[in-house]
Amino acid sequence: MSNPQYMAPSGDEERVIELHLPSRLGYEKVAMDTASAMAKRMGFSHDRVDSLRTAVSEAVTNAIEHGNQHDSAMKVVVVFTGSDDGLIVDVADQGRKILDQTITERTPDIHQVLHSDDKGGWGIWLIKELMDEVQFSVAPSGGNKLRMVIHLDR
Amino acid sequence: MIDDELKVTTRQRDGIWIIDLEGDVTTFAEEAITGAYEGVSKDGAKYIIINSRQSDYINSAGIAILIGVVTEVNRQAQKLAISGLSPHFQKIFRMVGLAQYADIFATEEEAIAAMQRHQKAASEPTKQ
User: Fold this and answer.
1) Domain boundaries in chain A?
2) CATH no. of A14-151
3) Which GO terms describe its molecular function (chain B) (predicted)?
4) Can you spell out the DSSP letters for A37-84?
5) What is the pTM of this model?
6) Which of B1, B25, B59 to mutate to test the interface with A (most CBs of A within 10 A)?
7) CA distance to partner chain B, nearest, from residue A4 (Å)
8) B6-123: CATH homologous superfamily?
């Protein structure tokens, strides 16, 4: 891998999977299925695998829709790094639109949403609810990067 | 290469309308789900069950579509239940708060039984 930020700890290269997905809805399922396969191999429970699938799909969908604005020439890069403690998933877009940080802090309220024209805005909140750690930063590409971590219960 | 396909059908059981969803409930599902809901409402549906059949991918856009249905159900004073969700999506729907507006059941049969209880209660004369 050329990007040093994505380098796995020495000797753990076999635990890193990197996907480059076109910014077209539907491809988030490739990331979901990869996450699922990796998490099952690592010994995550069925419930945690389901949570991971939802979180990964939301992160990649956000990158496709918002970060890369559906430009299929732009890639969403998803890096899965497994360790003895858990799984780190980095989702980076190419930043046609930079994520408004206030969105990352928002907790949607269904009572308000019911009376609003916009029924959405649940994705990032769901990721934060379902994952053990979530960080937002700037990707090396200049786009948005979301890192989520799910720990193995031991 | 990767298609998001959702099959939506409607049927009636004992005065209860059932909207069956089979496939992915994502942003591409809006027209089909909203259309099915409007169709049964036009036919006079008061009791509606959205029944998920093999929908193992429901994302936040799909949840937003269902919240849109809930909004209309409230406006039309209908009763809505959701059935057939996996335990994971039952959990997600409760987290989002949808369970405050639509009863959530593991199976269609449980949803039908609950709806029949609502029908019966609604048909009984109000005690003075």
Assistant:
1) 14-151
2) 3.30.565.10
3) anti-sigma factor antagonist activity
4) HHHHHHT--HHHHHHHHHHHHHHHHHIIIIISTT-TTSEEEEEEEE-S
5) 0.90
6) B59
7) 31
8) STAS domain (3.30.750.24)
